[in-house]
Model the fold of this input.
Amino acid sequence: MVPAACQGAVGVVCREDDAWVIQLLSSISHRSTFLEVSAERACLSALLGSAEAGQAGQPFPDVAWGCNAKHDSDKATMDLDCFVSDLEGQELLRYTEYDRSVVDSKDAEALGSLYGNLLRMVAGGLGWLQV
Done:
């Protein structure tokens, strides 16, 4: 089972120009979690067309989706698992990538966007999503 994107992650927002708060938050930031969340949000943003879309406000009520990223900081690689399915789970599109090189948030976002867009195109071609 693929968990909901960003499951268990805590996000904190601050002003761009507040150097003191940025420094404070960077001391408690977990790099691997940050990269995982970046990939998952990018995947869902590409898939759903909005970074703000969530399960409750789901624009596609006839499908379920999920995305899970796992970053290995020792190897600077990421595994990404994402899917779209019908609500009954009878039909499933799933992409899984293992050991993809990810060294920063741009790499993580690019990986997430790639697979989100692939899922969107294929699911759209099957009539599951409007693309």
Summary: DSSP finds three helices and three strands in the chain. The first strand starts at residue 63 and ends at 72. The two ends are 26 Å apart (CA to CA). The domain at 19-125 is CATH 3.30.160.40 (Double Stranded RNA Binding Domain).
